[in-house]
Specification:
alpha+beta
């Protein structure tokens, strides 16, 4: 799917969610809350970087069709420097693995607009979840299990 088409679809999904007409199932796996001693490290440019990874699976039924989208963020930190890469995947419904290699055939060419729409959707859904509005369920996965 082209980024502009997916961005427009996300706009519609956001509007439907705000109206309370769209339910979401999120699955999340992140190393963000772990101690740095448990995180992967890589060496680049002669510096050791601490790596965080975050996968979020977004699932809903939109216009009678099941939708599955998975985002991945790879964040490297060295002292006060931060570098981040973001990927978006639209795999078939039976491919729900948090593994970039397995998901790579389903990558979407993401641009800044599309990444912004996913951020908007995430913020809306997490707010809805915190407010216990009943539109969002979240399942958390341990990144090392």
């Amino acid at each position: 799917m082209k980024p502009a088409v997916l961005a427009n679809t996300l706009d519609e999904m956001i509007r439907e969610t705000k109206k309370g007409q769209l339910n979401w199932q999120l699955e999340l796996q992140s190393t963000d809350g772990l101690q740095d001693s448990l995180k992967h490290r890589i060496t680049e440019d002669g510096k050791e970087w601490v790596v965080d990874e975050c996968f979020i699976s977004f699932y809903c039924v939109f216009r009678g069709k099941q939708q599955l989208m998975i985002t991945y963020e790879h964040i490297k930190r060295h002292n006060d420097q931060v570098r981040s890469d973001n990927l978006i995947f639209m795999p078939p419904l039976n491919v729900r693995f948090f593994d970039v290699g397995i998901l790579s055939p389903y990558i979407v060419d993401a641009d800044a607009v599309l990444l912004d729409r996913f951020h908007q959707l995430w913020m809306l859904l997490i707010t809805s979840y915190k407010n216990k509005e009943g539109l969002v369920s979240i399942k958390f996965f341990d990144p090392y299990e």
